[in-house]
Amino acid sequence: MDTLTSPHGGGQPLLHQKGAETQAFGTLKQLPIGLGHDTRMYACQRLNRVLADTQILHSLYKKHHWLMRGATFYSLHLMLDKHAEAQLAIVDALAERVQSLGGVAVGDPRHVAELTSIPRPPDGVEPVPVMLSRLLDAHERILIDARDAAARLSAEGDEGSADLLVSDVVRTGEAQVWFLAEHLVDTPLVRG
């Protein structure tokens, strides 16, 4: 048998592989990071909740970025895309933190939908102020949960998770809320 027809040679990908789950969601593997099992388990649960909500927030930003209308279209279109990029970076940081604690990060969109606290928007287009208000509501939900989780995790000795929540989730969220809210101030465009 030559390497082109051999099942292990010729660079042929091994397609359609199946296998058993190697770690179930909601379980931990032991890692020598100086935090106990219960602290890591609690951290993974809280971080996964914030992660699910942040994934939904990222998706809302992208949806609203595509659906912007009106006189402020261009500036909002660009701003929402920039905010979406920042939220995507937070998604990655949260997921990697869960993994570094020995947990399993929520990643499948169907599972995210089961865990999120953010209400589902209509499938169609809403007025621009409603879309911006929807983003503000999502941010507020995340900020409340992230602050609570950070305080509790800090009290448990998990300063790494607490720092991630405050430095990335809270600080970025607060700045984005400010930018969004300023677009809802009722000011005339052409007369003072």
Short descriptors:
192 residues, mainly alpha, 61% helix, Ferritin_DPS_dom
What do you see in this structure?
The chain is mostly helical. 61% of the residues lie in helices and 0% in strands. It has five helices and no strands. The chain is globular and about 70 Å long. It comes from Streptomyces litmocidini. This is Dps family protein. Residues 45-189 form the Ferritin/DPS domain. Pfam families: Ferritin.
Note the topology.
Elements: H1 37-67, H2 73-100, H3 109-115, H4 128-155, H5 159-182
Helix pairs in contact: 1-2, 1-3, 1-4, 2-5, 4-5
Protein name: Dps family protein
Family: Belongs to the Dps family.
Domain Ferritin/DPS: 45-189
Q: Report the sheet-strand fraction.
A: under 5%
Number of helices: 5
Q: Give the terminus-to-terminus CA distance.
A: 84 Å
Whole-number mean pLDDT:
94
Helix amount: 55-70%
Biggest sheet architecture? none
Brief summary:
61% of the residues lie in helices and 0% in strands. The protein is mainly alpha-helical and 192 residues long.
